[in-house]
DNA sequence: TTGTACGCGTTATCAT
DNA sequence: ATGATAACGCGTACAA
């Protein structure tokens, strides 16, 4: 019964109606008699008819799709952002496609170009490099773009970000308040803007508090992952006791959780032997064995707001670009509170 | 300079060549003189030309896309599976789009239909209900489908799964080996096949070990999340000491981590006061403060194998459907080892 | 290199 | 209410 790739024509023929009627059944069912409509629908089922979105889009000029190009699909922070976007997309009756750039510029570029060629309604992206030319080019060519979780020097699109410098500052001010006199910053690579900003805010706060530069120890990691957090923990343990920091601020919660686990597994206690502050406040942070103090970003809101902006650009001719900056917030928990 | 939606025609005109030549520049650049080619390319840049994937696809009949419809994009297990798929997609030079059904049949159906209409090369899916008619229908209409992490009674597509009944059994046999005489199963909703199978395997193993049915306590949860794991922990604490299980097997690691955290936060010790076994062996499991014993599924392999199968179905006329079942493996860690 | 038929659904027009 | 027909959107492939 089923025919590979039945078209509207085939359906019309099978149902004994004209092509226009089939189209009406699909797009304006109220104009068709109950009886003929059900006959057409039966024919569609019999033939296994599937509307060809390409042909449709070609005619209509736009798709019903939004896309989010994620920096790291395995980091809960980004999937939470995606959830915020998804809610907004659903409300607008669009489907959301998630693409993972996996922190690689090449893959990101391929996704961007592919999406652009698909004529998606808009692209949300947490880019490897927010100042990349390609972003600007794609925006200029006409696809609405919103950069999520980064601001950018480049014009041509909206950005929705959280003030990472401030976040770094909040973390360190908290540690200073707790009386720490030597701390570590754990994070990397510094090519990731979020990491660099958090570091800069942290260091500035440290110096502003009158602490010494040499008491701000930087432990650079290859990637902001749990595994690297554990590795950083091993390096910390290796330091002579006198030079060992009493607290660590990690560029994200994955690093913090790795560090926390490594520290506890060697019998040291948190926060007595080492206080830890993370960043992002992912669900796993509060659920850690020693609940993690973390800098919270409004991640779902970040996504939702970004989606709003991209839809506005897609639909509102009066749209003007804007840079939204949310304020992070420190959530103090047991990992720093004696 | 940039014109909204310049087409090959516009480019041809601007470059002073024919439409066919532009097409050649795009698809068979070697057939075009260096000189005209660069002239055409310059025109493309000037006009901001973007290839229209719809028109292309319409002509070629297929897309360069693979899609994975995930049951829960926020569960690390599924993002790990997605990573496995992504590697395979990349090797085949296809882009992978991730869609999140968020465990809702309606959303899943919309994604499926949309993807089908897009004529994606294949759909990988961890379905809400592997026996749903829609899956079979989509497969019958011609889109290659592979069901991931579930087997199905329905014919018409390949499945790649892990033996969840066996997984449940391994978990409980381990607990029996450790001498536990009363255990809890934490999981739900039971409408999720994975949950039901793990429960069934667990219970069967318990009875097979000669333990009593009433010593197998079921704590049903609303969702397999960290928050629900914590809630289950509170219910456990509420049981009178004599009737309280000494071990818990959780339907996934999220539940286990929640339970672990709640237990420790009330000063009880793991595994002395409560032994815990999780399921999936996500990265966070080993990184928990008390490293979690868990049933490991080969999640990246699961994804990679599924991608292979869907590509085989898409490209090999001799393709025959197959049901692949991987074997899970218990990874014993401190959360059960005294 | 060029010209042109083609893929397929949408929409409009005129006729029945 | 439905039929018949054609123009359209745009890139591709192939004959000339």
Helix/strand layout:
The structure is a homodimer of 338-residue chains.
Chain A: H1 8-15, H2 19-27, H3 34-47, H4 53-60, E1 65-70, H5 76-91, E2 95-100, H6 105-117, E3 122-125, H7 133-140, E4 145-148, E5 158-162, H8 164-177, E6 183-187, H9 193-208, E7 216-220, H10 226-238, E8 247-250, H11 253-265, E9 275-280, H12 283-286, E10 293-296, H13 299-315, E11 323-326, E12 329-331
Parallel strand pairs in A: 1-2, 1-3, 3-4, 4-5, 5-11, 6-7, 6-8, 8-9, 9-10
Antiparallel strand pairs in A: 10-12
Helix pairs in contact in A: 1-2, 1-3, 5-13, 8-9, 10-11
Chain A binds a DNA duplex (16 and 16 nucleotides) through helix 2 and helix 4.
CATH superfamily of the largest domain in chain A, by name, is Response regulator
Q: List the domain count of chain A as a whole number.
A: 3
- Major beta sheet summary of chain A: 6 strands, parallel
CATH class of the largest domain in chain A reads Alpha Beta
3D structure, described in words:
The structure is a homodimer of 338-residue chains. By secondary structure, chain A is α/β, with parallel strands linked by helices. Chain A has three domains: 8-51, 434 Repressor (Amino-terminal Domain); 62-163 and 299-328, Rossmann fold (3-Layer(aba) Sandwich), CATH 3.40.50.2300; 164-297, Rossmann fold (3-Layer(aba) Sandwich), CATH 3.40.50.2300. Chain A is 45% helix and 17% strand. Chain A is built from 13 helices and twelve strands. Chain A has helices at residues 8-15, 19-27, 34-47, 53-60, 76-91, 105-117, 133-140, 164-177, 193-208, 226-238, 253-265, 283-286, 299-315, and strands at 65-70, 95-100, 122-125, 145-148, 158-162, 183-187, 216-220, 247-250, 275-280, 293-296, 323-326, 329-331. In chain A, the strands form two sheets. Chain A has a six-stranded parallel β-sheet with strand order 2-1-3-4-5-11, sandwiched between helices. A six-stranded mixed β-sheet of chain A has the order 7-6-8-9-10-12, sandwiched between helices. In chain A, helix 1 crosses helix 2 (19-27), helix 1 packs across helix 3 (34-47) and helix 8 packs parallel to helix 9 (193-208). Chain A is elongated. In chain A, 53% of the residues are buried. At the A-B interface, helix 4, helix 5, strand 2, helix 6 and helix 10 of A face helix 4, helix 5, strand 2, helix 6 and helix 10 of B. The structure holds a DNA duplex (16 and 16 nucleotides).
